[in-house]
Amino acid sequence: MNKERDDETLDTCLEDTFRKLERARSGQSAELKPQEVGIVDYVGQGIARVSGMASVRSEELVRFPDGLYGLVFNIDPDEVGIIMLDPSEDIVAGSEVVRTGRVLDVPVGDSLLSRVVDALGRPLDKRGDIHATERLPVEREAPPIMHRDPVTAPLQTGIKAIDALIPIGRGQRELILGDRLTGKTTIVLDTIINQHDKSVICIYCAIGKQSSDVAKTIAILRDHRALDYTIVVVAAGEEPPGLQFVAPYAATSMGEHFMAQGRDVLIVYDDLTRHARAYRELSLLLRRPPGREAYPGDIFYIHSRMLERSTHLRQEYGGGSLTALPIIETEAQDISSYIPTNLISITDGQIYLSPSLFQKGILPAIDVGKSVSRVGGKAQLPAYRAVAGDLRIAYAQFEELESFSRFGTRLDDNTRRRLERGWRVREILKQQQLEPISVTNQIAVLLAVTGGVFDGIPVDDIHQAERKIQKEISTFAPNLRSMILSGKRLGVDDYKHLLEAARKAVEVKAAPDHANH
Q1: Catalytic machinery residues
Q2: Rounded to two decimals, what is the model's pTM?
Q3: Which of 48, 139, 238, 247 makes the best surface tag, with the fewest CB within 10 Å?
């Protein structure tokens, strides 16, 4: 009797199951999807530990109550370590966590231009939603070696000391480092402003900076009409460390979208010191073993896998470029400390800003002796090479000679002449912030100083004479200017014409008194 009752129950269950399947096929019922749900065991400052998610994957996006998101970071036998991408104050132990089944991605495309967004691509500028038609994962593999082309085109910064002595190419990674308040951000702002007519898309990624500093930076870009071709990605210092960690990867994905379309992109990471600190904070909270100077052992990989995505692609793979300018903050001029040496070994050169030069008023405070570009020289315009070929060595020798001359009062005539020329070269390399200079004007001024045009002008009058030369060159020989910009080599007669125009623009006075120095 019991067996007959069990058979009837089984038949009834099977009939109900078949009816549900029929209704699902005919659209009468929505398909049921199973969800894997975990339980929060512990929540801390920016992290959570969750149990009960046996099938979750690394770097998968998970959803907490009230639409808050986190990123799976640690997968241990008994629990999952998650970094929070939203504030975690409202999350308590016992809360449910749901898998999303997808990795973290961000919106990409032209709709992001002139916008200010957070690390997840959400707008921060109160200008409405961003209607992007495409999204890319935040973590992506770097292009293979065979997909890359040599760096051949220059990225003009508008700064004489960089474009002439430490040139940067499109697709290069050039580190900017120095102590606090030495002008690192000013250099990248000058560079972004200088791209206004050069078809270069700019991305400024602020990591761990104060909101007031970021607001000033955005205001400067807006005032100089540079925001039109710039995306600003912000993970401010008061944001969760998870957002600060994700921000530079998200910004890189936004740039890679344009690079794949054959466009040139400049990305600034300001700065990776704070990025490293955010990663250290997350790692220690998630009980990852610390290594040297309390940084986890994979801190090198954290930065290298991001910067390796900057390159110049071959034409069959898009032909675009992604140029990276990471910024690092040093302490007490120690460029040999852990994180700076990591970045120096990853990048293709570095621009070092000296606090002592900054205090002397030599701005931008670029230490030419400690700065180097390992790639950009091959991409430098040919007109620069003839003008600035020996300038770097001569300037470095002048600095040593100037230091030596302080110990003696009697100098021979040759030494005095070299010092006089060196003082004028240093004065010419000074530049007002947020005033980038065009290529033609740079070459004319550098040619004038190496050609002796400024030798008879007092040092205090150098910048006035420089402005006269720039004004003269702006209306001089349009065909010569087009030759320079197109990358053609100038002949001896072309340089003579430029030098004659510079001489006409200034009135040579008597040699200055050495006491002025």
Answers
A1: 374
A2: 0.90
A3: 238
